[in-house]
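Hi W.,

Here's what went into the run:
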Amino acid sequence: MLTKRNKIANWILVVVLIALSLFFLFPVIWMLANSFKTDAQITADMNTAAAFIPPVLNGSFFDNYISILTNTSFLRYMLNTLFYAAVLIVLGIIVNGLAGYALAKIKFPFRERWLLVIMLLMIVPMETIITIHFLFVAKLGLLNTVIGYILPMIVNPFNIFLFRQVFISLPDDIYEAAQLDYCSPIKYFFTMVLPMSKSVVATVSVFTFLNVWNDYLWPSLVFTSSDLLTAQIGLNAITANDNTTMGQTLAVITLITIPVIIIYSFFSKQIVEGVVSTGSKEG
Amino acid sequence: MAFFGPALVLLTIFLFIPMILTLIFSFTDFFALNPDITHFVGFENYSQLFHDEDFRQAFGNTVRFMLIIVPLQGLGALSLALLINKVTHCKKYFKVAFFVPVVMSLAVVSTLWIQIFSPEGILNSILGNFGIDPQPFINSASQALPSIAVMSSWQGMGYQMIIFLGGLQAINPALYEAAEMDHASGWKKFKDITLPELKPLCIFVFITITIGAFRMLVQPMIMTGGGPSHSTYTMVYDIYETGTVNWEIGLASTMSIVFAFFVMILTVIQTVVTKERGNKHADKKK
Amino acid sequence: MGFIELKHIGKKYANSDKNAVTDFNLEIEEKEFIAFVGPSGCGKSTTLRMIAGFEEITEGELYIDGVKMNEVAPRDRGISMVFQNYALYPHMTVEKNISYGLKNMKVPKDIIKKKVDWVIDILGLEEYRYRKPKNLSGGQRQRVALGRAIVKDQKVFLMDEPLSNLDAKLRVSMRNEISKLHRSLGSTTIYVTHDQVEAMTMADRIVIMKDGVVQQIGKPMDLYEHPQNKFVAGFIGSPQMNFYDVTVNGEEMTFADGSKMTLPKATAEKLASHKGELILGIRGEDIKFDSQNIDVYKQNSQQAVIENTEIMGNENNLYFQFGGAQTVARVSKYEVCQMGDRVEFVFMPHKMHFFDRETEMSI
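Here's what came out:
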């Protein structure tokens, strides 16, 4: 129950937080508003409140966006990245899922040791071995190839562990029932285990997507050819071009963020749960 | 075993072998453009690192970056979480609003803030309204690192805020009701219930930020190229340049080992703290 | 030769020095309904799972229809199984759950449809056909699990505590339904339960187990009337059989509290070779309150004060202290007693069971 004094305090808090959030978001608001402007307009508005207000809706409102999508390869980079993400989601679920399932449910030699190894691998920072990955890919002549980019990214100790933690609580009797229904182990994995674990499959897919979409270092090492670039590397290439205006730059970074916003709004529950659980679950 | 096979092959090629090679190369002068003249050099690389100006500066920068971002992002996230947890209206909006920068990638944020930090940029324009002279921000050796730290805090704060909100919601409300019965004031409740209950989570979050700080690379890579005058050069940046630009795999491996050593120690501390916390919670349930 | 034969079947887990199941021998006829019953941990489920092939048989041999099955994969043993927690595929509809096995067996589509329709019809699942398990009640899930087992036309049916997750009322009706199904399908059935009532009401023969060892195998009434040891006597029947430590000397039987009874001549003669210290067992319904009509010996009539009553409606359980032990008598609803009443009773002389105090075997 709120006393009258508490009510007033609460409203003050709301107002303070709204002000704080607007201040906090000023770079984003500025980005959105000015992504629709010409550079002359941006400069002209800079010292006024108009800096945070989009221009009036007219025929040239979307010019920056249109020129990015038609005059540069940015759309192609986005599609590239979507394709890489799709491939890595599928391969990642198969490879890491199968491994997690094996660690959870299949008896094989040294299973407990392997689990420990996977957990130890989780603490190794990827930056440590990225030089060697680069060396491998370069020596194999796989620089500037999709395979060279994708291969080292498939296996992921975190995802193996995550799958294992979920699969271990699947009831064994369903596997036994499926055995009596003439279901082979591999068929069981694809037609039973994965559909029964939709939630973790979704979580892994979402995080794989975000990882691929936002990754910078590895694609910047592997890709130099402009045909294969990911969106983030493409962004760098486009902004480095002297012909690119500030408004166009802001339009590119808005465009690149849209898919992520879509993903977040569809899977916010999984993501927030994932974020919160990193802080609250053991190990 | 057939199920584990594909993962095992990939783990071996892309994790085990690279890790072993990194360790081995760290004791050699392996130069990828001329691999035939490789020698075993023992700990020479390691001792060289201690005298390597660039690496020392990179390490120093990393520590300075850490000293700014850990309190700024950590306390900022905690304060936001406490306020949002208290507020009764527009809760959902606040959660989303402060989470927005997390959605943006580091490359996007860096590109955006290059504009914001620019000498005639919007930040200087705002500051001008308060009568503050234009600042050079990322163009000056003294301001570049703090500027990037502030920007990084801004980008990551929402993430930690969500973790803290989760922690706050996990506190048993009966504790507050009991304190109310014991005539505890609002401040007392915060000091005697909220803080102790959140303490393990705080440690977890602060270490997470520290690890993130150690791994910083993309921001200076895009915004400053490590400059001005190496003021934003970081450990990972040094590894990247030494290994993949200069092809000095031996020295880069040594840096990688030193870097991994720090990160892994932090991760282990974090795991231990989190484990203890998990166990404490398990005990409580009994 | 039986349809299913278990020869000296034993189970030993690697990490335990005790056998989970020891020397299990049983021949099951075709179309027979066999119940394995016993307290939890007695090895009944383990035995069933060895028959199914989900647990390795570490000792002995298993034959189904004359073929040795020890090394045969579960799905090739010609069995179907109903699991304790149903084990329905959670992401499939009722229809898909039932047809899944047939699809994997590459049965032609039109035949699958016919069979599934038939099963859904006899189990009354028509209106749930396109629902998923999470939208079904316990009883409906149970039916789907049964349907999934029935549809494959296997000769042997294994059921592992199929009713244990249902409420009491539903359990009775499902009991009935399973019995009916068994009669109409004529499949050989092995049914594991910890509930002796289920075993008694459904099974042709019952196997009682304890600590991995078979205690007795027999028809329900045989077990009830002629338990081979004290464990079986106590396990079968509700309320539990009353047990007393007694000393028998010729025709005279003395209870721990000094009460005495005179035994019939025939009984005394049978006990003559087992001297002295015995355990007497008598069922609640064999304690009678109309004493003069039953026992020839006047002095056998005993007295006690009722301490507690359980009114069931059709009959009543009366609790009192006698012979150094808590005693429960089961009387008809017409014999009304109240707490504190002093009653006179006799034990029906030919319904007394005697057990050796050392071995607890029946005499």
